[in-house]
Amino acid sequence: MNDSSHRPQHADALLSEELQGAPTVVPAQPTHTKKLYLESYGCQMNFSDSEIVASILDGAGYATTRNEEEADLILLNTCAIRDNAEQRVLKRLTQFKQAKRNRPKLVVGVLGCMAERLRENLLEQQKLVDLVVGPDAYRDLPNLVEQVHGGQKAVNVLLSREETYAEISPVRLDANGITAFISIMRGCDNMCSFCVVPFTRGRERSRDPQSIVREAKELFEQGYREVTLLGQNVDSYKWNIDNKGQIKNADEPVVRFAELLELVASVHPDLRVRFSTSHPKDMTDDVLHAMARHENICKYIHLPVQSGNSDVLKRMNRGYTREWYLDRIAAIRRILPGCSISTDVIAGFCGETEAEHQDTLSLMREVKYDMAYMFKYSERPRTLAERKFEDDVPEEVKGRRLREIIELQGEHSLAGAERLVGQVHKVLIEGVSKKSEEELFGRTTHNTIAVFPRGEHRAGEYVHVHATDRSSVTLRGTVVPAP
Length: 483
Ligand code: SAH
Ligand code: SF4
Ligand code: F3S
Description:
483 residues, five-stranded mixed β-barrel, binds iron/sulfur cluster
């Protein structure tokens, strides 16, 4: 992300330092006598879940606050994806533990993926918190908080095969009123060997399409102009069909991701649709054709590669080879010319040789991603990689490989932005630029940020911007008449 004032677009954008632990706020209502301070970490799914949590606790009389000092209840919605993500949360919990010395009535709880990973350990061994609640147990929060008020510690980390919180209306936290997330599924059934998510989020399940479309319609009616459909692997979204491909209920339609995309895109031509995350092994041409058919489905695909070497991909259990991945890229280029593509890369996975690392760099040179999130491999307890392979790439080698990956991506990102200079882009205005009151910012369909003079325009409008220049990867330009 090139500007922390702007809304993050993808799971790991939310892992950037600026956004870690951003507090979230809903206005207090007179009936709300208690105050909740909610801090969210990790991916967009977690931020989206925080909006469900705020909604459930709103029903129990809690208004959110930005000020942790005045909170009755402090909840951290946590991430377990890499060790450093967990360390940050543990540090924060130690601070809250100290705050509790002077505020004996204060209740502190852990939600999300660390709750699932560490469970009772947070209560019993580390004695850091009063409450531990996993991602499928948020409906139980009001009871669990009551239990704590009654003098007990409370835990619910049960994972569910059904829970999708489908009918809960999320409280839009920190909303700009223009862009919103909609969770379309939960959990993950892929067992990528490095990844903790299947353990913290449980089995994959899809939310019913009617409630998704209804939510998109309501958002549009409230003035929102963009929705991002969220799932760990959106390409395996399926409704009314079981894992063997059999139809469950003959009276109901079968909906896969391509159809869902079209249903949401049909809510209104002025409602932009984005989605995250696509999986290279499951992304079909159907999805690409659906994108081509609807101008309002944004021409931007996040397609995490992880590594450019087929042997590493096999050890990662990703379910595709370098050649398969490059074929998917070719399909995007063929069906959606000009579509922007981003990725995730892991440096220094178990057993990664220098030649295998070079394959990642060569794949990056071939694809020329517009953007990438890049990480050092971090071993996670219980994962396949932890059980099967040795985390044997020395720390300094991981660091050096990551630096090479970041440097190369830097060149590609700048070249990608440079290609957009000189063109006219349709931009959805999201708000006033952080740097100047006189300027507005918004995004192109390619997810590139454009900044331009304010004029008479306002957030929620579409304008055409002639990009005349760029600073780093942000376009600068002026509003021109629609072509
Ligand atoms: N469901 C998404 C990814 C979710 S996690 C997908 O399959 O693409 C987001 C990213 O974090 C992953 O794409 C991966 O690049 C990174 N990641 C996950 N586990 C990691 C680990 N143990 N160490 C380093 N990076 C990891
Ligand atoms: Fe993790 Fe793989 Fe599932 Fe993504 S697809 S959440 S990387 S197991
Ligand atoms: Fe998301 Fe982190 Fe959990 S990336 S699914 S919050 S482990």
